[in-house]
Structures are given as structure tokens and as C-alpha cells.
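Hi R.,

Here's the chain you asked about this morning:
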Amino acid sequence: MDASVQGRSPTLSVLQASAMLVGIVVGIGIFKTPPLVAANSAGPAEFLALWLAGGVLMIVGALCYAELGSQNPSAGGEYFYLTRAYGRATGFLFAFARMTVMQTGAIAAVAFVYGDYANKLVPLGELGPSLHAAMSVVLFTVLQLFGTTTSGRSQTLLTLLTIVILLVVAGAAMFAEPHASVANVVSSGPSSGAAGLALVFILLTYGGWNEAAYLSGEVRDARRNMVRVLLLGTSAIIVLYLIYNSALLYAFGFEGLRQSKTIVEGPVAEVFGQAGSAVVALIICATAISTINATIFTGARSMFALGLDFRPFATLARRSPRNAAPLTALIVQGCIALVLIAFGAGARNGFQAMVEYTAPVFWTFLLLVGLSLFVFRRRGASSPSAYRVPLYPLPPIVFSAMCVYLIYSSVMYTGTGALVGLGVLAAGIPVYWLGNRREAGRYATRTVARSPAG
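And here is the predicted structure, written out as C-alpha cells:
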């Protein structure tokens, strides 16, 4: 919700908001995705160019979201934009997809990252990463059932810790003995079409720029300063990621990076030594735990909101009588995440399977969000004091085209997980139709009962 609506004045400076944007975007994914991006790149030059392209696309998307957030201030974010632009059915499908694909898939994906590093510390065999992933979801779901949540202060501390570890690993990689000359690598890489899949992983790692929609209501003089916040914050993220990935290329070599599963091995481990690599793995696990806990918390609240808005899902709005935690939503979310972990355990790479499962659905709704900017502009209901994206209509056109390309790439260059995710989304259509029929029937029954003839 807009700060002015709550009777508050925006308080964030440009520097504070930029730092917050960096903290939102830089997360656990950067410790997992570089080898996957390298595996889908033709060579080191394309590898770095794709990271740069992903950063530019992040800026374009953030600018579009900044206008949407400024013109449509609401804590509901994309759910509010989609419902207001296209109607209740689209809003329901988005909420349904968050429950069954996007948010639960994100929980499972981060849990797999945690599992990969936790299995380095406590090996549990071939299925160790999946077992660690499942245990983390169960543990933090149970803790939240008891009302245990991570405070904002500790979340900020762990985000700063993530950035520090990122720079420490990059520095260690620069001091490592290079295993291959980046300039002279001759790769038998994938076809150029796989670059689309590489962008899927890159934009997942850049994920969080859509939170700019919520920052716009908290920045002082947002109309003038939002562009500065976005350019400063996103430029810092791009530079940080390019430094980090260049360091990995230097240490591992392109082919070595493609074969790596985690960054705490090979040349980086040689710099830290056995104890040092274990410490880094432990800190990365702590960062992953922070992300898992926060994602479980926010996901359960969005499912709770679905229960309030749609009567057939009313049970999701059930709270714990002891601590008001969204009891049913937490349990249902945890069960769905565990099913997805079991699904990912059967794949070659659980994290990649979850990205494939969520990506086409995620980019489908982001496409609708991008197109909603045209809908709101056409309606002409914008506030003259609200932020407006520069060079309109070019940014939303580029953003929408990017979404179309990534939907195509995430279906054409992935496994069956993408089709499963789209199938689950399609299942939401009859669910909405049946739910609407039930609601209409109940309304008709109440109307007849209240009428004088009844």
C-alpha cells in the first residue's frame, strides 16, 4: 500500500532505497547458477555477455514495475495489477499458480541449493541433497507454525553476509591458480538456442527487481528519484555479478565451471583449504536457510489471502488460535513443496528441475503484468504526480518481448518439468469455474431464502 494512504510520508533516500534493492536481488541463486549458465553458453565471451544482457533486461523490467507500483499502490503487487487490468479470473489464476507452482517451486529450488551445500558438510549419500532439502522445508514450516519467524534485522544481516561471501569467494577465485586460460578455451558448447535457457537462469538470479514496485511508495520524491534508485541499484548488482563471474572463469576455466556443481570445490577450495571451504559452505547454508524461511513466510501469507478472496479456498484463511499463524496455508504449502522436492529428486539436478517447472508459468504472468501497463495507460486513469516510465512505449515492448522469448526458451530448451508446470496452471481454470459455480449457487440460495416469497 502507498505510504501516503497509510498517513505516512516516504522516508527512504536514494542511497537507502538503492541498497535495499541490492539486498533484495542478491541472494542464494548466484552460488548455484553460474555453472548452469556456463553449461548453456557457447563460450566465455557469451557467458559474460549473457550476464550483462540479463542485467540490462532487469533494468527495463524494473522501470516498468516502478510505474505500475506508483500508479497502482497496493500491498498486493502483481495480484492487484492483474486483477485490476484483466479481471478476477486472471487474479485467481495468478494466486493459484503462486500456491502450486511459483512460490512452492521457489521454496523447493532454494531448498535444493541448501541441500547441495549441506550434503558437503553432512553427507547423506546420493539422495543427500534431496533429503537435506526436505528436512529444511519441514523444519521451517514447523517453526512458523509455532510463530517463529526471522526478524527483519536478521534478514538484513544475512543479506549483507551473502554479499560479503560473494566478494570473498570472488577474491579467493582471483588468488587461485587458474586451471585454464579463458581466452584460449575451445568449447564444444551447446547450440546458440540454449542461450535462452541460460537467460532463464540468469534472470532467476537477478530476480527481485519487481520489488521496485513496492519501493516506489517509500522513496522521497519518487517521481524524480525512482530512476536514480533503479539505475544506481541495478548498476551495482550488474557490476557485482560480472566481477564474481569473471573471477569464477579465471579460477575454474570455462570448461571447469561447466562441470562444477558448487563453487566451494576445485580451485576455490584449494585457496581456502579444507576447513575454509567447509566454513564457506556453512555460511552459504545459513544464507539459504534465511531465504527458505522468508519464502515460506511470504508464500503462506499469499495463500492466506487466496483463502480470504475465494470461498472454495476458505480453509487456507484458517489461523492458529494460539499465535494467529496461517495454520492451514503453512501446512498445505509445506506439503506441496515436499511433493516438488520428491519430483526434483528424480531429476538429474533438483534445482534445475524446479527452475524448469516454475519458469514458463512465472514468465507468462510477468508478460501479462508488462502488458497491463498498456491497459492502464489506455484507460488514462494515472495520477499526474506518479512515476512514469521513460521512453514509453519502448520499455514495456522490450519487457514483453523478453517475456515471450523466455516463455518459449523455458519450454523448448527444458525437460518435462516445464510442461508439468503449465499443466498445473491449466488445472486452475476448471478449479476457478467450479468454485464460481459453487459461490453463485450459495448466493442464489441465500437470495431465495431472504425473499418474501421464500
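One quick note: The chain is about 75% helix and 0% strand.

Cheers,
M.
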